[in-house]
């Protein structure tokens, strides 16, 4: 789990509050950092609950918890939208893996690899 604003273990909450729920979450999930970087099919990829800028409200929220757009593709949730692939204002690919954009199912890693491929390659 990469937690976000709906998760009681997210860093948007105070540590004392998160600690009360951590065990319950850990019974079901392996909790990952809120923002992280890893290689996907050999390509540097950022992971966060939040996209670089966009939100499903007029004004983006939780900006201090978002990753900085350095041109690295981003895998995210948060939007509750049907869009799967978007570009940040800087033109960086963002892959929305929320179930609302994937027929209410988790995204398979092979699908993620395909979505992350650069169309210019």
Walk me through the topology.
Layout: H1 15-26, E1 35-40, E2 43-48, E3 74-76, E4 85-87, E5 93-96, H2 109-116
Parallel strand pairs: 2-3, 3-5
Antiparallel strand pairs: 1-2, 4-5
How would you summarize this macromolecular structure in one to three sentences?
The protein has 121 residues and is an alpha/beta fold.
Distance between the termini: 31 Å
What is the chain-wise order of helices and strands? HEEEEEH
Strand elements, count: 5
Mean pLDDT across residues: 91
> Largest beta sheet, briefly?
5 strands, mixed
Low-confidence stretches: none
Q: Approximately what portion of the residues adopt beta-strand conformation?
A: 15-25%
Strand ordering within the main sheet: 1-2-3-5-4
Principal-axes shape call: globular
Tell me the helix content.
10-25%
How would you classify the helix and strand content by structural class?
alpha/beta
Count of helical regions = 2
Radius of gyration: 15 Å
């Amino acid at each position: 789990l990469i937690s976000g604003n709906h998760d009681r273990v997210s860093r948007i909450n105070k540590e004392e509050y998160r600690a009360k729920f951590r065990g319950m979450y850990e019974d079901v999930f392996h909790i990952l950092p809120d923002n992280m970087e890893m290689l996907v099919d050999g390509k540097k990829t950022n992971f966060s609950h939040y996209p670089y800028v966009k939100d499903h409200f007029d004004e983006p929220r939780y900006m201090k918890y978002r990753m900085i757009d350095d041109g690295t593709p981003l895998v995210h949730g948060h939007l509750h939208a049907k869009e799967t692939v978007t570009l940040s204002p800087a033109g960086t690919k963002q892959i929305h893996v929320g179930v609302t954009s994937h027929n209410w199912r988790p995204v398979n890693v092979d699908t993620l690899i395909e979505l992350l491929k650069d169309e210019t390659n």
